[in-house]
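Ticket 4471: requesting a sanity check on a complex prediction with 4'-deoxy-4'-aminopyridoxal-5'-phosphate. Repro inputs:
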Amino acid sequence: MPTAFNTRDLYVDLTRRIGIPLHLKCEGFNFAGSIKLKPAIAMVQAAERAGRLKPGGLLIESSSGNLGLALSIIAADRGYQFLCVTDDRCNPATVAAMRAYGTSVEIITDPDPEGGYLAARLRRVDELLAENPGSLWLDQYRNYENWLSHYRSTASEIAEAYPNLRYLFVGAGTTGTVSGCARYMLDHYPSVQVIGVDSSGSVNFGTPSAPRQIPGLGSGIPPHHLDLSDLADTVLVDEIDTIRMCRRLARTGLLFGGSTGTVVAGAERWLAGRSDVVAGEAVTLAPDLGERYLGSIYDDAWVTARFPELACELQDLQAAQ
Ligand code: PMP
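Returned structure tokens:
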């Protein structure tokens, strides 16, 4: 299997690094820095084909950051205007990058009553659509091109790279990735179990909403794309364990975003907790890279302000250096 440091190869074996028999498909090595470039391109091309997006047209979208960054690049490349509605949790580096591409970014600062921001972001999208006649909302939450892009590319690429694939762990935000992967495996490789992984406090798998700090995974609104019966199982991971795993991976030379820490932590727990794991490869996705999280997940002050219980662990880590 290729190593992490061959720039042409995007697969890493974590077995030696952190003792988990798990492979990572790294999706952050493109101009948008994340997996969300795939649904972004698919949704824009479908809108162009349908005549819904005209030259110079205005796109409006809600994003936790990565889809917004991907659409910013596509809009700049193709001459569209783009207005992105995000929220307080979006990485400042992502906001700055979107603005550098010419995107107008609106940041929602008042959370919904249950602590998320999605309902507030979508209300703002509605207002902006009304204020800008002729503008287009691609709507990643309901647009089937979102999950279809992963059915066509992400899932088939994994199946090709891992002929002995048995377990595939996929994070859930809009649930486009996990739904596309699960449907592809059900259609083509039904012996592969797709396990959904999300942050505690997300409603994606039917559990109650609670405040979350890290952008990427999770939702405060029930997902449109996901049919839970397509998944073999689901796992919820506390954000504190996301941070622990991101930092553990960093100490092996792998700097990833929060959702990678979540899915790896979820996969570790799921695999360790089962006596009936069958032989074959276990794979997960690293949806983005860690550099845009240096001011949050990898910043001790940011972490201890939000997760005071981690303060001692961070001190021990420093002392061990
Ligand atoms: N990881 C990261 C870093 C993301 O930005 C997103 C999308 N918000 C996801 C995972 C989840 O992907 P999806 O929307 O396809 O569920």
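Notes from triage: DSSP finds eleven helices and ten strands in the chain. Leaving this open until the requester confirms.
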